[in-house]
Amino acid sequence: MAGCIFCDIVKGKIPAKIVHQDPLSLAFHDVSPKAPTHVLVVPREHLDDLDAATPEKELLLGHLLMVAKEVAAKQGLEGGYRLVVNRGEDGGQTVDHLHVHVLGGRRLHWPPG
Ligand code: 5GP
Ligand code: ZN
User: Fold this and answer.
1) Which end of the chain is more exposed for a tag (fewer CB within 10 A), N or C?
2) Which residue out of 13, 30, 48 has the highest number of ligand 1 atoms within 8 Å of its CB and is therefore the one to mutate?
3) Which atom of ligand 1 is nearest to the CA of 28?
4) Closest among 39, 44, 48 to 19, alpha carbons compared
5) 10 contacts: CB under 8 Å, gap ≥ 6
6) What is the pTM of this model?
7) Chain Cα centroid distance, residue 66
8) pLDDT digits (tens, 9 = 90+) for 31-88
9) Plot region of 3 (φ>0 → left; ψ -120 to 50 → alpha; else → beta)
10) Of 81, 67, 58, which is closest to residue 26 (Cα–Cα)?
11) Taking ligand 2, which is a single-atom ion, which protein residues have CB atoms under 5 Å away?
């Protein structure tokens, strides 16, 4: 989608520190990390957010979780990690391309703010 930062990263138009790529998804370090490890897993295809995912995207959504756990393992997050999907303004979403945050490398607080 034109004007979408993550679509531009998927296309290689904007540089990113990529840690995983496959035909369906891409994972790269967040430019403004909120934890020692902060990676974003995104589908290559543009979906605004989780609510834009129709039932035929079920396998894709599962794939993103599988990639997220593989990323966590590759990043050495044996002590644990957190996956976050922000949706909409109240959810704290700032980039309108579906993404899963993989956060770890320190003890994370709960509940989140
Ligand atoms: P959200 O707030 O939508 O859940 O998460 C968006 C995330 O994308 C934020 O953590 C933000 O730091 C990250 N981000 C925004 N622009 C860029 C960018 O150009 N490159 C990378 N790698 N991350 C970005
Ligand atoms: Zn996009």
Assistant:
1) C
2) 30
3) 22
4) 39
5) 26, 42, 44
6) 0.98
7) 12
8) 999 999 999 999 999 999 999 999 999 999 999 999 999 999 999 999 999 999 999 9
9) left
10) 67
11) 1, 4, 6-7, 46, 97
What phi, psi does 73 have (nearest 5°)?
A: -65, -45
Ligand 1, pocket residues at CB < 6 Å: 5, 14, 16, 28, 30-32, 40, 86, 92-95
Active-site residue, from 38, 97, 99, 101: 99
- Ligand 1 centroid vs 81 CA: distance in angstroms? 18
